[in-house]
Amino acid sequence: xxxxxxxxxxxxxxxxxLESEQTPYVKATFIRLVEKDEISPDEAKELIALCLADxxxxxxxxxxxxxxxxxxxxxxxxxxxxxxxxxxxSDQDQDKD
Length: 97
Description:
By secondary structure, this protein is mostly helical. The chain is 74% helix and 0% strand. The longest helix is centred in the middle third of the chain and has 22 residues, at 41-62. The termini are far apart.
């Protein structure tokens, strides 16, 4: 599955989060991206889907539950770059030496 098809597969989840009372931070991010950052609604949804994909991937790699706080932080950083866990990864690499 390529990146674009992954994003497209997550768009229904993003749309659901935009409507859910349990994820108001997703709607707030969407509104901020569209109104303040002047990003198209479709692109804003794709950026949110990238954050969802990033956290889902980290959840799989680390064999842990979904980290809502990390997801919120990724959303807060939009439209900038996604948070990298490079500091954590490099610390783990140093422990191996």
